[in-house]
Every structure is written in C-alpha cells, then in structure tokens.
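Q: I'm building a small set of examples for a reading group on sequence design. Run inverse folding on the following structure and report the sequence directly after it, with nothing in between.
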C-alpha cells in the first residue's frame, strides 16, 4: 500500500509506476483505492463510475478497469456535500458528518471488492487517500491504515520534497501512528527531488535512526512524462508543450470552473506541438483565445453562476460575435443552452436558472445518472470508430435538430450534441473526445482553415504517448528505488 504525507504527494503516479514495473516483469497486478475523493472519474466498459486515477493505473497494469478497483468514490458537489458513489453507482448525497456516520457500513463493500481482486491477481497495489496522520479521521478509517490493518498490508509512505518539509512530514506521520500501524510501515519514498541525491544521505540515515524505517527510494522531479492527472492542483502548473508560437499555433483556453470535473478530457491537446492551451479563471486571461472551452462540472448551476458573476457570460457573448470558437463538454454543454433545471435539487439548492443561451437547449437534472461507454462518429462521417464515455445527471432536449455526433450503443444509435454558428459553437456530452487522434487533428485543422492558417500535419498519438509514459515511469522507479528491498517487502 502506498500512502502519502499529504494529497498530491505522488501516490497515484507511484502506484502506476509500480504496476507497470511489475507487469513488465510478468507479474499480474491491479490497483485498488478503497475510498477516493475526486471530480475526475471514468466509466468502465460495463457502465460503472470509478476514480480517473484507478482507470489510469489499470491502463498502466494493462488490464481493464473495474468497479472493484475503487468501491467508494466521493464527488464533492458543494463545499459541504458530496455525491457518494458505491460500486460504481450513485448512492446518496451526504455532508461530511453524515458520511462519517455511515462509513462503517461501507467497510463490507470495500472488503468484498479487495478480496475479489486478490482472487484474480498476484499483486494488488493499494493507494491511500490524503494522509494516514489525519487523526480526526482515524475512527472507522477505510482509506489508509484502517484498511491496511484489515489485511496486514505492508505500507510505504511517499512525501513530496519539492514542497519542503519532507523529513518533518515523515517523522510527524510516524509519530502519529499507533504501534500496530508502525509495524506495517516498511519505509519511506522521497518524491520530486531536484539535485544531487548524495546530499540526502545524512538526512536519510537520521530519519531511519529516529523511526527504524529506511528511505528506500528517491524519485527525481520529472517534466517529460505525461500521464492523466486526478488532482485539480495539477491545473495550476499544467502547460502545453508549445515553446514558441508559430503562425499556425491555435490558442485554446479552458475555463477553470470551481467544480471542474474530467479535465483529463483536454490532456491530448497538450501533446500537440502547434497548440497553446491553458486553464484560465478570468476573462482577461482568455482575451487572446482562438478557442474557449467550458469543461465538465459536478455542479452545473453553481458553476453557471460563477460564469455570470466573473464576467465570462459577457466576455463569451462578445467572443462569439467576433468569430471565436466556443465548445462545451458535458456540464459545459448544458451551460451553453437556454435553461438548466434541477427540480430534485440533485446538484444544487437552486431549482432553475437561465443559461448562456448560445444553443436552443433545455436541460433537466434527473435522479438517474447516465453512465456508459459509447462508440461514435461525426455526423459528416469524416471521423469514425471513436470511443468515449458519458457521465451526467441531466437530460438535454433541443428545439430543433443539429447534432454533432452519431452515437452507437447496444446495437442502436442516437444523436449527441448540438452545433451552431457554422460549427463555431458546439457542445457534447461525450468525454474523451480528444483522445481520438483522427478527430482531434481534423478538428484543429478545421479551426486553422477558418482562421486562414495553414494546416499542420500531426503524428502525435495520445494512446502511444501514454504507453511510453508508463514504461518511462517503470524505468524511473527501477532506477530510483532499492528494488531488492522493495521486492522483499512484497515477498517476491
């Protein structure tokens, strides 16, 4: 089990690295996270919702993601409430206090899921949540040491040295653990180190004397390995590969909504050399945009209010008038319509709100969540055999017929999305659109043509780039960690 001194210490990436390292050695393995809190989620092939990180980790292990890999998913909808997803389906909307009271009832679900995975794979790599030193969360803990103790799972704790204070974090975490929990702790891993590793020797020896636990690895800070992120903290530093703008560079600005979800939708765009993409929180940061994207949201109405209050509504109106391209994905698609209603208060206490009115759509939030993997193609047939997935509560109706995609599901087809302004304004419910190389490249070049730019040939494959990244992670792990100690901890 990989636990961390804090969120964003590197747990998810380290788990992915270990899984690919083991898989490359011929060992069958799978990820497991008992309880996850994230707005980035994924739909499994059989229609269940799990944390995006566990889907990424399953990809690293070269296996299909399943609901058992993340049995409890918490999706915050407000500062005080979250949708609780149990075994891939929405269960209840609960406050933090309410969740603490029912958490013990979910332990059996967590145990059954873990035991199912144990029956299928040789090694399970478990990811903790936050920090095991949060003593206010120790009662009925199923996310960190509480889970590790159920099965006597050996634990490594990772800390982010780039933030500073990593040794204090290691020692403070150790000091707050019980004797049984300290017995399960087998060592520490330092993450995101810059510089000469030998300068850490004295400090590493000191922490081992103080705790009796060795530092078994120092993983260097890296920038050249791109894998899907789960934590929104990453958006503050995420930048495209573009170094110098050319006459064919498209500037894309994604609005960083307060309740942004599934921002991994746009990761493939960061890999395109002739694209400058950034996340923005104010209209002034989007002034230079060719394209503005409104992404998914866990609370469409509240994020719509943010767009209005922050000046984005007026900015987008002027932006589209001047010929800018505007795209909405999922919640962003709903916001592009005329009205959003939430009669059951599924996401918000506000029952109805006027939307941005770029498209003739009305959305009503229902009690049932749409969760499915889909095969789709563009209406003009120029891009076919594409894969994506849907995660949304709302049902959207159009006043007339102007869809973007033809969607195939269970041997039937329907239509998705709406397009207007000669294709300059459009929206869709489908996540993972830009993962499809052919569609992404054709879409970018259609924008270039409209702007009078030259088309750009692209050989960037998002799928292949992820595979290379997982292998690089595994290699980096093998070079940075005492592998003999690591394998002995695993009993291999």
């Amino acid at each position: 089990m990989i636990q961390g001194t804090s969120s964003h210490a590197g747990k998810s990436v380290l788990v992915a690295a270990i899984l690919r390292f083991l898989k490359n050695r011929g060992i069958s393995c799978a990820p497991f996270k008992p309880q996850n809190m994230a707005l980035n989620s994924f739909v499994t092939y059989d229609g269940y919702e799990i944390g995006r990180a566990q889907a990424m980790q399953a990809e690293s292990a070269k296996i299909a993601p399943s609901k058992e890999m993340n049995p409890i998913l918490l999706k915050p909808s407000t500062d005080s409430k979250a949708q609780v997803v149990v075994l891939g389906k929405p269960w209840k909307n609960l406050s933090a206090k309410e969740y603490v009271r029912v958490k013990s009832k979910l332990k059996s679900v967590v145990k059954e899921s873990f035991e199912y995975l144990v029956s299928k794979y040789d090694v399970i790599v478990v990811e903790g949540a936050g920090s095991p030193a949060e003593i206010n969360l120790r009662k009925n803990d199923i996310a960190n040491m509480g889970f590790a103790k159920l099965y006597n799972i050996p634990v490594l704790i990772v800390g982010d040295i780039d933030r500073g204070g990593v040794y204090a974090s290691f020692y403070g975490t150790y000091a707050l653990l019980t004797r049984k929990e300290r017995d399960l702790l087998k060592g520490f891993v330092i993450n995101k180190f810059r510089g000469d590793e030998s300068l850490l020797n004295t400090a590493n020896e000191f922490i081992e004397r103080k705790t009796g636990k060795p530092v078994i690895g120092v993983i260097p800070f890296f920038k050249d390995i791109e894998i899907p992120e789960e934590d929104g903290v990453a958006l503050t530093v995420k930048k495209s590969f573009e170094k110098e703008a050319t006459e064919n560079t498209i500037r894309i600005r994604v609005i960083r909504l307060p309740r942004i979800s599934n921002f991994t939708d746009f990761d493939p765009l960061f890999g395109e050399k002739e694209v400058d993409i950034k996340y923005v929180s104010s209209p002034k940061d989007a002034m230079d945009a060719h394209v503005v994207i409104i992404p998914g949201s866990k609370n469409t109405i509240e994020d719509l209010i943010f767009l209005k209050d922050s000046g984005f509504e007026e900015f987008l109106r002027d932006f589209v008038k001047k010929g800018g391209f505007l795209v909405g994905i999922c919640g962003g698609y709903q916001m592009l319509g005329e009205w959003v209603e939430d009669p059951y208060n599924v996401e918000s206490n506000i029952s109805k709100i006027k939307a941005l009115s770029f498209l003739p759509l009305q959305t009503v939030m229902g009690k049932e969540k749409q969760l499915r993997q889909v095969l789709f193609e563009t209406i003009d047939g120029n891009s076919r055999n594409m894969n994506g997935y849907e995660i949304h509560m709302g049902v959207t109706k159009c006043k007339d017929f102007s869809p973007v995609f033809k969607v195939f599901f269970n041997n039937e087809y329907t239509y998705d999305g709406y397009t207007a302004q000669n294709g300059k304004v459009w929206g869709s419910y489908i996540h993972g659109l830009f993962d499809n190389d052919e569609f992404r490249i054709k879409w970018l070049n259609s924008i270039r043509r409209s702007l009078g730019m030259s088309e750009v040939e692209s050989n960037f494959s998002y799928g292949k780039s992820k595979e290379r990244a997982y292998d690089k992670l595994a290699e980096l792990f093998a070079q940075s960690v005492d592998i003999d100690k690591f394998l002995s901890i695993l009993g291999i």
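Residues 462-480 form the longest helix (19 residues).
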